Amino acid sequence: QVQLVESGGGLxxxxxxxxxxxxxxxxxxxxxxxxxxxxxxxxxxxxxSSISRPDGITSxxxxxxxxxxISRDEAKSTLYLQMNSLKPEDTAVYYCAKGGRWGPWTxxxxxxxxxxx
Length: 117
Prior knowledge:
Layout lengths: L3 E4 L2 E3 L5 E7 L9 E6 L5 E7 L6 E3 L7 E6 L4 E6 L8 E7 L7 E2 L3 E5 L2
Parallel strand pairs: 2-11
Antiparallel strand pairs: 1-3, 3-8, 4-5, 4-9, 5-6, 7-8, 9-10, 9-11
């Protein structure tokens, strides 16, 4: 059974930065492409970024390209999302997910990110 536990969310001012972490089941990165997705209140899930296996090629949605960076530490079995230049429209619940850009996704419980002054 896949286990994904996100952390690192919080309240940040516009222009600020946060780094999200996802503690994952050991060995998952060698088997699956991993993604970050988010859900804005009242809207559906939005794919943000993926990192493929085993080569680690990254891809990003247009709304976050150039501001967010996905990475993984296989030794720690942890997925990261570095978020810079945050905007109020980035406010959402962020989920770590097993699966690529088009899903289907197996998600963790999520972590709330709020961007507000």
